[in-house]
Amino acid sequence: MKTIKHTADSRGYANHGWLKSHHSFSFSSYYNPERMSFGALRVLNDDWVQPKMGFGTHPHQNMEIISIPLKGALSHKDSMDNKRAIEVGEVQVMSAGTGLTHSEFNDSKTDEVNFLQLWILPETQNVTPNYEQKKFDLNERANQFQTVVSPQDKLVEGSLGIHQQGHIHIGSFDEDTQVVHQIEEGKGTYIFVIEGNVEVDANQLTKRDALGIWDTDEVTLTISEGSEILMIDVPMS
To answer: In the prediction, which pLDDT does 88 show?
Structure first.
């Protein structure tokens, strides 16, 4: 088993006034040659958008982009004529493929929006751009992992598809809970603690800490207090 630990305070940080963003991997002005990616996981940003502010229209190409709201609602508009708000409990997936543009905005006059944005490198280039959004039943992630994203060609029922052999799971766990997660051959798992306290392979993880694990077929998580956990399985090469 191989591991790499990324503590919350070791992440890159940018404060643009209207946006405060923590970067788990090199992004924009934050560059760390030792933190370029975890396998096919290229970006994991923890973004806070101020009221009545947002990202102007900008392009993407050949990337699987996943947004997971944690607080508030984020309005979305893109070149595929999608215009919707993304709320807590929902997940949004965009396959940028040959190219698209989009914007994101916090319409609230008083409240911040906090969301996680992930970029996963696709296994197929120049696909037709696609957009999906779904509200998930939060009861189905109680003391277990709920799969919210999976490969298009091996789609887990009820999840959203991406053009990569990767999975994204979210779980909400009570204290004194233990869960074993299987890891497929050739893949690693990146465990990101949204809230709570978790022990993984003798590593103690607290809020916004992360641990990447590979070269093993399973991992055991021991939860010592109520926790919400994001788990990302991706090919390592």
So the answer is: 97
